[in-house]
Hints:
Elements: E1 14-17, H1 22-34, E2 41-45, E3 52-56, E4 59-65, E5 76-79, H2 87-94, E6 98-101, E7 110-111, H3 115-131, E8 133-142, H4 148-163, E9 182-183, H5 194-206, E10 213-219, E11 226-234, H6 239-247, E12 252-254, H7 263-266, E13 272-281, E14 284-291, H8 294-308
Parallel strand pairs: 1-2, 1-5, 2-4, 5-6, 6-7, 8-10, 12-13
Antiparallel strand pairs: 3-4, 8-11, 9-10, 11-14, 13-14
Amino acid sequence: xxxxxxxxxxxxxxxxxxxxxxxxxxxxxxxxxxxxxxxxxxxxxxxxxxxxxxxxxxxxxxxxxxxxxxxxxxxxxxxxxxxxxxxxxxxxxxxxxxxxxxxxxxxxxxxxxxxxxxxxxxxxxxxxxxxxxxxxxxxxxxxxxxxxxxxxxxxxxxxxxxxxxxxxxxxxxxxxxxxxxxxxxxxxxxxxxxxxxxxxxxxxxxxxxxxxxxxxxxxxxxxxxxxxxxxxxxxxxxxxxxxxxxxxxxxxxxxxxxxxxxxxxxxxxxxxxxxxxxxxxxxxxxxxxxxxxxxxxxxxxxxxxxxxxxxx
Length: 312
């Protein structure tokens, strides 16, 4: 049986599992921004015959096989990608190790919602608190950045190859994304079930497990930024009440009436920009919002969980 380290919590290791994944990359940035000493941070990923290099706070690091990790010896373990055996992490969490799960796959861990869930909940929660949502439907357009640097590079390569009338690389997306739209049921395997997870997490955030909520996502050929088209029916109130609730909400900016509304516009600001808000009925509204970096918000949330637990 592995023994827990006798080192003080503030000196024990912090493991990042899935360090080379998009979520892992953002998590490393969030930890570095928090000032976590690189000497404490150890990177892990799936076993590979070829050495996998990553970095932490500008310093090159080797990604170690996750089989070499003893979660119980760590102050905190961040699980950033699915596909790993959850048993050791579940047992470590039961034994007192802080296990923060960004993948939605580890039982008993401290969950951090999917980045899209974080963005949708930020819009829905003030509406629900002020006017009570009767039902809602969202379509979320996702960028290549959701698949990390590899996704950004593959979209660029696909575009170049198509303009040369050459066959496109499809290792990341599994199919052509350039000049195309990929619906959620055709997304790569690691995103299978993402829409169902987002619905469940939004219902939990709103405290209403029965809320009629439909979420559809699609991957579109843009590099950065998410776009959200949201239709909401309210129990009471209308457009004025909805606008008032959104104006005072943390992380939201109302940018109606201007030229804002494209995903590129969101990149100039942090958070979520409500670019269009209109009534479609007495108690029905439509929202168009753009999100600068949903993944960064989720990574920040994960670091906040660890900070609140006193392990950083």
